[in-house]
């Protein structure tokens, strides 16, 4: 009999639903040393939480996260709330001896992220593990891209071009949901999706950013207020308007360890782009290109080939030898967004069972948080702007 680890998850909106899917399916597809049991779902409203628990497959519902993290049937706490409560919940859970997986960005501020990383360091000395949930690392094609870079197939990395393009708030009448409020989300497109491309770029290249220079913009400064500002769509309108105090888009350049130049663009105003997380890496021996909107494909150009034969070729990342892919369908049948979360909890459970630190750690999450803060500081510093 494999040891069973009870999971207590806080939050049941978009991220809670997709994490539930991961916890529900992981043992059916991966042979793990431990088995997760979906012990309890946490949320604020008794009715909505009980209903979500029933629908998503949780054994119980709890309206007080402080009780949830103390429960004896909970060994893992999964934090799927907006960023303003990540630090409080994660730190309390670690102090209670529970392993923690926490949605991205790790926190809303560097100070909170520092406190979380410190709590994780302390907890690790007691065998308690913590991970920040940057799920796109677990797209098979992204993991394969990292493998190619690590194997030296690209040679010296010269350029990284990363974009995260969405369009779900392009309509000025789209309401002021929590992702557009600094007090809840910390920042706008920058923290919500820019954080993903910072992590993806650092993960694929194995190099951290050492400095940035940035522009941010808020295109729509007032939006309708909505009653229940949960989820992506928001609830019914109140008829009033509120001020948007976060960025709608962030554009920045940076330098990676080792000298590669990188550019980043995060926006929710790219009309027609739904979830285009893209990365291209150019090295001395070749290039890689990925777009989440075709997430089962990785494009590779081998620059050591004769020019007459060389050129980008498409690799369908669905072969048994590709990261994660062998656990699923026959070659060519493809995976979706939800699988990245299944891979995330698989890696987390394996690390917990092995007594190892999972990646990305809270320390990695803190490093991303420092990049976000540097981007905001750079964008606010108009003295660096050269008028033409
Ligand atoms: C909204 O922009 C969002 O749901 C992000 O919060 C997620 O992290 C991303 O995976 C999809 O888009």
Automatic annotation (TrEMBL):
<protein>
    <submittedName>
        <fullName>Oxidoreductase</fullName>
    </submittedName>
</protein>
<dbReference type="GO" id="GO:0016491">
    <property type="term" value="F:oxidoreductase activity"/>
</dbReference>
<dbReference type="Pfam" id="PF22725">
    <property type="entry name" value="GFO_IDH_MocA_C3"/>
</dbReference>
<feature type="domain" description="Gfo/Idh/MocA-like oxidoreductase N-terminal">
    <location>
        <begin position="6"/>
        <end position="124"/>
    </location>
</feature>
<dbReference type="InterPro" id="IPR000683">
    <property type="entry name" value="Gfo/Idh/MocA-like_OxRdtase_N"/>
</dbReference>
<dbReference type="Pfam" id="PF01408">
    <property type="entry name" value="GFO_IDH_MocA"/>
</dbReference>
<dbReference type="InterPro" id="IPR055170">
    <property type="entry name" value="GFO_IDH_MocA-like_dom"/>
</dbReference>
<dbReference type="InterPro" id="IPR036291">
    <property type="entry name" value="NAD(P)-bd_dom_sf"/>
</dbReference>
<dbReference type="GO" id="GO:0000166">
    <property type="term" value="F:nucleotide binding"/>
</dbReference>
<feature type="domain" description="GFO/IDH/MocA-like oxidoreductase">
    <location>
        <begin position="144"/>
        <end position="288"/>
    </location>
</feature>
<dbReference type="InterPro" id="IPR050463">
    <property type="entry name" value="Gfo/Idh/MocA_oxidrdct_glycsds"/>
</dbReference>
<keyword id="KW-0560">Oxidoreductase</keyword>
């Amino acid at each position: 009999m494999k040891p069973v680890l009870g999971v207590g998850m806080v939050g049941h909106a978009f991220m809670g639903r997709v994490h539930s899917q991961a916890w529900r399916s992981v043992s059916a597809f991966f042979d793990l040393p431990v088995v997760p049991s979906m012990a309890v779902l946490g949320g604020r409203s008794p009715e909505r939480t009980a209903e979500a628990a029933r629908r998503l497959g949780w054994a119980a519902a709890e309206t007080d996260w402080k009780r949830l993290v103390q429960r004896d049937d909970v060994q893992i706490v999964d934090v799927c709330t907006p960023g303003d409560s990540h630090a409080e919940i994660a730190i309390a859970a670690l102090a209670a001896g529970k392993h923690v997986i926490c949605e991205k960005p790790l926190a809303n501020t560097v100070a909170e992220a520092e406190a979380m990383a410190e709590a994780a360091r302390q907890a690790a000395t007691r065998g308690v593990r913590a991970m920040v949930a940057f799920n796109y690392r677990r797209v098979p094609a992204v993991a394969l891209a990292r493998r190619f870079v690590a194997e030296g197939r690209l040679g010296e990395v010269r350029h990284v071009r990363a974009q995260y393009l969405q369009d779900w708030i392009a309509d000025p009448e789209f309401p002021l949901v929590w992702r557009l409020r600094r007090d809840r989300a910390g920042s706008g497109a920058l923290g919500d999706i820019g954080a993903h491309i910072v992590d993806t770029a650092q993960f694929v290249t194995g190099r951290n950013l050492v400095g940035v220079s940035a522009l941010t913009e808020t295109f729509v400064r007032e939006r309708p207020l909505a009653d229940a500002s949960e989820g992506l769509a928001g609830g019914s309108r109140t008829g009033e308007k509120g001020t948007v105090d976060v960025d709608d888009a962030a554009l920045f350049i940076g330098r990676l360890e080792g000298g590669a130049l990188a550019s980043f663009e995060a926006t929710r105003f790219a009309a027609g782009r739904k979830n285009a997380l893209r990365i291209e890496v150019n090295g001395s021996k070749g290039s890689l290109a990925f777009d989440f909107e075709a997430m089962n494909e990785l494009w590779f150009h081998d620059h050591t080939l004769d020019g007459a034969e060389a050129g980008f070729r498409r690799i369908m990342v669905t072969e048994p030898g590709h990261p994660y892919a062998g656990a699923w369908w026959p070659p060519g049948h493809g995976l979706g967004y939800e699988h990245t979360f299944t891979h995330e909890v698989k890696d987390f459970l394996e690390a917990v069972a092995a007594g190892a630190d999972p990646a990305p750690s809270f320390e990695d999450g803190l490093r991303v948080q420092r990049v976000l803060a540097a981007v905001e500081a750079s964008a606010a510093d108009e003295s660096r702007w050269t008028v033409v």
